[in-house]
UniProtKB/TrEMBL annotation:
Matching InterPro entries: AB_hydrolase_fold (IPR029058), OHBut_olig_hydro_put (IPR016582)
GO molecular function per UniProt: hydrolase activity
Pfam families the UniProt entry points to: 3HBOH (PF10605)
Organism: Dyella acidisoli
Protein name listed in UniProt: D-(-)-3-hydroxybutyrate oligomer hydrolase
Coiled-coil annotated spans: none
Record's keyword terms, sorted: Hydrolase
Length: 582
């Protein structure tokens, strides 16, 4: 094992990707990334190459707007063929029960004159390629190596039905036959377990360390790739950290832990960052949203909001039932559905929700993301295994709408296709319901009580959330935070704005762009009616990374302030460069 990476578990895998394969798109190119899922010749036994190609395609589609109106590849961004090598391993933080993946992509055209390593963490709970559309798309064509970590999340789902998980190469393997991405402590159980929720580690509190380990792994792999140029160190190789969503929070955590000055610059997009005493924790506002937003979005002001009404333009019946439930519980005083919706809206306004955030959050509400996030995160914070999740929740394979056993093809696809937190890909979230007209409220109220209550579980959950607090970065670290003004999943009022205010109060001078018309999911912009109202955030992230590069390698001064571009919403047509305001 190479000196300086004693955190690596087992062997380092190396693979070459050239000719009809590459690092950025696995040979698909932009058109292939946009197309149908990359096929498996034998769905029950896909090859390692097929799994990798589809994992990269899935990660691109989950992050970037590749739709016909979105402008990717014409107005901004590109997907050139980038041949090179990949180095991959499992790594562990001290005391952790489960590993996180680290992977380094080294392009053949690595720029020896401008030695650059981009380090990133997956967005959401995605697998190892979960930030490729940001970090890889910007860094690889520029001649930078890119180091990734899944930050203790990922789609290496463990299936108790056949006692199998995912090996380093993405293939399914039975416990005991290979080192697995995630191997539950319990040797017996039922259903599906996954690393983010069931590792026993509260991985979110370690995201910063995961990023710093990935950076160290990146330097070590550059030593292997170019031994004649070694050693690669933070003194002769500029390390730029970037990520979005949970990945953005991870690089901000890393910035506060960077005692050895590994990082030369940080660009965080729409970060899930926790600043106690100033902001709100994700678990707090996610459980609040799960309870209250269905009713609040019934208000007439959201009548034309995408996702806030059903396909026929009528209010969602389940949301009307939520208003009635909140009224029956005494949480709403008004008597009529219209008044109840207005009262729920005013309640959320009083806790910091803006109209912009609520409107865009209609998508997350319609897709049931709040409940899904809260159930998984509660299990992570309380360090529960799959058989003992809070509030009666559990995950299992869905067969004809009921818990069942997966076939081989379904299992084989999980690593490439899964987003890291079910439901999806044949896995469902079960439990937490009752027989009432509003069946999901019982579980949601239980999840909310873990935040508002003061029993042993509530105190344990608060302790885990307290451990997520970002620490102060060093004063001379160039930092840029970008966040969509319309973000309805991680609203700026709860995340970026309190973090930036805290940095300013502590004498730091980060750049901050609150980008008009941008929201959380660029990938959602391809949905009819939704993209009309918004702009993608990725082009602004690429621009920020360009400025960091110019500062580090071309001696351009780091600006004290930089006005946020005044973009305009895309409308029903194709995105135009002028709309971005840059």
């Amino acid at each position: 094992m190479q000196q300086g990476i004693d955190f690596v578990q087992g062997e380092v895998s190396v693979a070459t990707h050239r000719d009809h394969d590459d690092l950025l798109s696995a040979g698909l190119g932009l058109d292939g990334l946009k197309g149908a899922p990359s096929p498996f010749a034998n769905p029950a036994k896909p090859t390692v190459q097929e799994l990798r190609q589809r994992a990269i395609q899935t990660s691109w589609k989950g992050i970037a707007d590749l739709g016909p109106l979105g402008g990717y590849g014409t107005i901004y961004g590109a997907v050139p063929a980038v041949p090179g090598r990949e180095y991959q391993a499992f790594a562990k933080n001290p005391g952790a029960h489960q590993p996180h993946r680290v992977l380094v992509q080294v392009p053949d055209h690595f720029d020896q004159a401008h030695r650059c390593l981009v380090v990133t963490a997956s967005s959401g709970s995605r697998g190892i390629y979960g930030a490729i559309a940001l970090a890889g798309a910007w860094g690889l064509p520029k001649g930078c190596a890119v180091a990734y970590t899944d930050k203790g999340t990922g789609s290496g789902y463990f299936d108790y039905a056949d006692n199998s998980g995912v090996a380093l190469n993405g293939e399914r393997a039975v416990r005991g036959t290979a080192m697995l991405e995630f191997e539950p402590a319990a040797s017996k159980g039922e259903g599906i377990a996954f690393k983010h929720a069931h590792s026993g580690d509260n991985p979110e509190a370690e995201w910063g360390q995961h990023v710093l380990q990935a950076a160290q792994f990146g330097l070590a792999m550059l030593d292997r790739a170019f031994p004649e140029q070694a050693p690669f160190t933070p003194q002769n190789t500029k390390i730029i950290a970037t990520g979005l969503s949970n990945g953005g929070g991870a690089v901000l955590q890393a910035a506060g832990l960077d005692e050895h000055h590994l990082l030369a610059g940080v660009v965080a997009l729409e970060p899930n960052v926790h600043t106690p005493q100033r902001g709100r924790a994700l678990y707090d506002y996610a459980t609040e949203a799960a309870m209250w937003l269905p009713c609040a979005l019934m208000d007439a002001r959201f009548a034309s909001t995408p996702f806030a009404r059903d396909a026929k333009g009528a209010p969602h019946a389940a949301w009307a039932a939520r208003c009635a439930s909140l009224h029956a519980q005494g949480l709403l005083k008004a008597a009529t559905p219209e008044q109840q919706a207005a009262e729920a809206y005013e309640h959320l306004r009083s806790t910091g929700w803006t109209d912009q955030a609520m409107a865009t959050a209609a998508s997350s509400t319609a897709l049931d993301l709040w409940r899904v996030i809260a159930a998984a995160y509660a299990s992570a914070y309380l360090r529960r295994d799959a058989d003992n999740m809070p509030c009666g929740y559990h995950y299992n394979v869905v067969v004809n709408g009921k818990p069942g056993v997966a076939d081989e093809a379904t299992r084989a696809s999980w690593w490439a296709d899964g987003a890291g937190i079910p439901p999806g890909n044949g896995i469902g979230l079960f439990g937490g319901t009752d027989e009432s007209a509003d069946p999901q409220l019982a579980g949601i109220a239980c999840l909310r009580a873990l935040w508002t209550g003061d029993d042993a579980d509530g105190r344990a959950l608060h302790a885990s959330v307290h451990a997520l607090a970002a620490k102060l970065p060093r004063k001379d670290l160039p930092m840029w935070v970008l966040h969509g003004a319309d973000d309805g999943l991680l609203p700026t009022a709860f995340t970026s704005e309190p973090y930036i205010a805290w940095l300013h109060a502590e004498g730091r001078r980060p750049l901050y762009w609150k980008v008009p018309h941008a929201q959380h999911f660029d990938a959602f912009l391809a949905l009819p009616g939704f993209g009309d109202k918004h702009l993608p955030l990725l082009p602004y992230g690429y621009t920020a990374l360009d400025r960091v590069w110019a500062h580090l390698f071309q001696a351009q001064p780091w600006p004290e302030d930089l006005p946020t571009p005044a973009g305009t919403a895309r409308g029903a047509g194709v995105l135009q460069a002028s709309m971005l305001g840059m």
